[in-house]
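Example record used in the benchmark description.
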Amino acid sequence: MPEETTVPTPAPEASVPDEPPTLPVTFRPGRTRAVLLTAAAAIFVVVSVMALLLDRLSTPERISFVFTALLLSGVVLVLARPKVVAEESGVTVTNFASSRRLDWAQIVRVNLRVGDPWVFLDLSDGTSLAVIGIQPGIAKQHAIADARALRALVEARSGRAAGEDRD
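Model output (structure tokens):
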């Protein structure tokens, strides 16, 4: 049984926006981001407090503990970075280590298939771009709504009808 469904059809009770959201709009995994920001703060506080409370540590060792806490917190903050910003002029996709600016015409399709870890954009040059800022991990329904909103924006900005492919 192949899984090729792109962005599931809404249930009858689910509300589907009639028109795309007002620009500019930012999509990001809110719950995931909250967990990661909290974890980064907790890591820094716990490791730093441990460095201060351990009597046997020398000053350079304490400093290395705090530096390590900063480094670990920084890594977690990078994981909280992904987002998608849609503006009149196009879309900026910010992933963990990179950011890419796209014109609306470059985006052919917005895909969120069952089992995908995040949204993928099919681009006019034949490539695909991961959009980690819309991920169904913790908040599946929110990610589906964001994928639909981004799809509606792409369709409205490109002048194509829903489901119509560009050659």
